[in-house]
Target: EAL domain-containing protein
Amino acid sequence: AKALGKNSFHYYTKSMRDKALKRMTLLKDLRYAIGHQQLFVEYQPIVDLATSKITKAEALVRWQHPKDGLIRPDEFIPISEESGLIVDISNWVFRQVCADVVHWRKQYSADLQISINTSPVHYADQDSCITNWIDYMESHQVPAEAILLEITEGLLMSGDDSVSNKLFHFKKNGVGIALDDFGTGYSSISYLKKYPTDYLKIDKGFVQSVTEVTNDKVLCEAIIVMAQKLGINVVAEGIETKGQYDMLKNMGCQFGQGYLFSKPLGKQAFNALLSQQ
Ligand code: C2E
Ligand code: CA
Ligand code: CA
Ligand code: CA
Model:
């Protein structure tokens, strides 16, 4: 038993070392990727449930690794946050989105909005303040209403005044705020009063059981009613079936996103979709 214990200890440290090494390589590759056209943005349509029109889209970053193929954000966003690289990634995504949305608003739909995921790390960064985005938009003729910032409850939990100031600064300049993954964290209702929230995105976990007789159904409906009374628009994430769509629409949910409408699309494919409607 002793030998086995020693052995498993040996394997344990080896796997720890492998993990750390893999992480370091990934980080090095990611740092390189940003400046070398390996990152790209996909757009997932957000549909107005009443009219079925695409009025918004969420920008989702992807990484085409030269050797490992497509790497999903869940794999590289966490390490980019730990290392601070997320600031460069976010700035890069933001600029892509600015260029694309200006083009699409001119070409196809004047009130199209693109929502961008933002990281708490970026709000805390001293050197590259996220509020610089406002200056960038002004100097590049990007209307403030064209951009929505997705934030998560984790950002608000700190209760940090500087976070709150930044969010109000965006709000004052006309940039909308969407609270992402609502229902998965602490979901403190007080956040909705305290911060300038324009949209609330109900997490796909709730949406996926909305047609079953569960508490999730009751919660979904309660969230929608509450948001409406507070003047906050609701986006349901992860709609995959017609049943979920009908249920949410009947509950009064205004917007939907999910595979039922479309998976995230490359720039060209999303462009083609816009040109058809
Ligand atoms: P999220 O913000 O909650 O994004 C929604 C995720 O749900 C996306 O995964 C999307 O592809 C997926 N999804 C959309 N519709 C459906 C559906 O009908 N069913 C199911 N099962 N899934 C659906 P993705 O693209 O892999 O992104 C994962 C997470 O990575 C995002 O979760 C977000 O937290 C983060 N992320 C993505 N892009 C960025 C970025 O540019 N910056 C930052 N900071 N985070 C990002
Ligand atoms: Ca999101
Ligand atoms: Ca989400
Ligand atoms: Ca998420």
